[in-house]
Amino acid sequence: MNAKVDRMTRIESLISEMTLSEKLGQLTMTACGYAVTGPTIAGDSTEAIKAGTIGSLLNLVGADHIRQMQDLAVAHSRLKIPLLIALDVIHGLRTIFPIPLAEAAMFDREGWERTAREAAHEAAADGIALTFAPMLDVARDPRWGRIAEGPGEDPWLASEIARAKVRGFQGAQLSDRDALAACAKHYCGYGAVTAGRDYASTDVSERTLQEVHLPAFRAALEAGVASVMPAFTDLAGIPMTANRALLRERLRGQYGFDGVIISDYNAIGELLRHGVAADLTEAATLALNAGVDIDMMSNAYRTGLPAALERGWVQIAQIDQAVHRVLTLKTRLGLFDDPYRRGSVPESVAALSERRRFARQIGARSVVMLQNVRATLPLPGSIQRLCVAGPLADAAAEMGGCWCPAARTDTHVSVLQGLRAALPEVAISHAPGVAINGDDRSQIEAALEQCERAEAIVLCLGEAASMSGEAASRSDLDLPGLQRGFAQAVFESASTHDIPVIVVLFSGRPLIVPWLFERADAVLAAWFLGTEAGNAIADLLTGAQSPSARSPVSWPRSMGQVPVFFAQRPSGRPASANDHYTSKYLDAPNEPLINFGHGLTYGQFRYSNLRVAPEAVRESDTLGIEVDLANVGSHEAEETVFLFAHDKLASVSRPLLELKGFRRIHLHPGQSGTVRLSMPASELCFPGVDLERVFEPGEVEILVGPSAERTRLLAQTIVLKT
Length: 722
Ligand code: GLC
Known about the structure:
Number of helices: 19
Largest sheet: 6 strands, mixed
CATH class of the largest domain: Alpha Beta
Radius of gyration: 26 Å
Bound molecules: alpha-D-glucopyranose
Number of domains: 3
Oligomer: single chain
């Protein structure tokens, strides 16, 4: 018999031996807090594992702790079914890489894949077998703190990231010692929460679901993602955890997903607060009927499904199907063959130091240089006195950003530390000035005096790590605390003494700080870069690396513009200064302060000679796109070229721009080159009037350029033919 048939037989015979409580145990995931004395199971004793009534654990780290728990299941339970150990390994376990929004700015598939691979190495070395990543929620409202965890505002970019991350986490095959099962989350539409407030209701059209919120999940499925996590939120009144139409019918039925669906933390229990279940029996019934396999932390399956069975609300066949999917995943992970396969090979010192070197390189490639007037950066080699000011100047503990559950922040490198290491001959003073938040003004005067004695000021401002990520929505996206006042005092003093001010902005989202761009000589969006943050930033400030990242989100001028994103649909009355009755504000431009894709380098690139062939294509054809670039600057640099399309006339109003590709090119000063991209014409299909996929004849604009700023794009019109 082949391995798959053999595996199925083994699983079916195991299920035939299981009691109901053992079956429900395999559908139960419990959090594990660990104290000095060893792991304590939140809400459950270790007896439950020995009794086979827990099948998976989350929030447990450390090879010893994990082995201890695995022993309870494998050595002491009746059927010896191994535990599935899971954790949010979002951007690293102990070596922390940039937050996902920062990594999205790299526009580098290989980089995205490799950081996931490196994180999988570290996590599997602990014994972890599943990560609750990648988070694929497209977000266009920066008030939402979880924009930090995701791929930014564009569904095509999100899909590219989805593929790379699933490949990276899962590796060649799930049974490999360093493979992590990935989990595409949070299905779906979570990024559209009302008013950017986390966990709030979402309500988007079927068209927006298909065009914006579902593509990345479909890409993850195509890449073979092992699990999916429904969002906490309701979608038009139906909580995703109970959403039979989108889970059982769409995800499993239409998209063919046969992996494991894991609820979010207590999400089944929260169906009571959603007002769609009166008790855990009803909640468990809704979730199981919708297709949710594992109940994370609500205990609804163990306590509610027995009664649901008795009442005929669910059938034992459904429970067996869910158990079958869970046991199939454990089998694919190799847990039955060797439950200790992961966690048995500690990472070598050489591997860890190589990983930190890589993290430094990734950090530098995730920083977006938003502004650099008078070529302030890179710092001149002659500099002797530098002041590193602001509350994030020496804030190593903040550099990891959100979701670093197991990292020791004392191993993170601050900007001050990074610069002092990179410039040992330079006198580098430190002037925090104010705290990230709070109203203590006592250090401002001293800080200003420090700044006045410097030849250049690196002003490190922004959010604390806790101000983005889950449950971290903000209604005011200016700098918190007294930072704005302090920064303006620094600008004032610096302009008096003709000292350049370089702002390094730390945040989990685009901030709304137009006043800052008016005064700063240079602005780097450093997001949160992880363990090697300070060294990565120093590499950019000194010119050891040229900034190359591009913003994966638009930066609004004001909250009044939100949501602002490049893929807007046209209006019947597009903005016109000459016509009052058009789509515009009386008090602000429509365009964002910073466009999607914006990012400066130390080079200066000229685009010319766009060629698109063939000029008429069928759906099965492939378009070839070429554009010439010249680096007319004085520094070598890497430019990211974007490919957009605009379907000007179709049966449905199409977005003004749709991202369809990118390509990077590295050029030395004075060097020229040609960027070549190809695009299957089928990429120009879209959901037609009846939401069925169509390829419509007619003209389409193909556009190429450095960002979504329309005025900087070269365009050529082609014809689609059937
Ligand atoms: C959290 C998050 C989810 C995470 C899970 C486990 O509440 O919503 O993204 O994977 O719980 O930590």
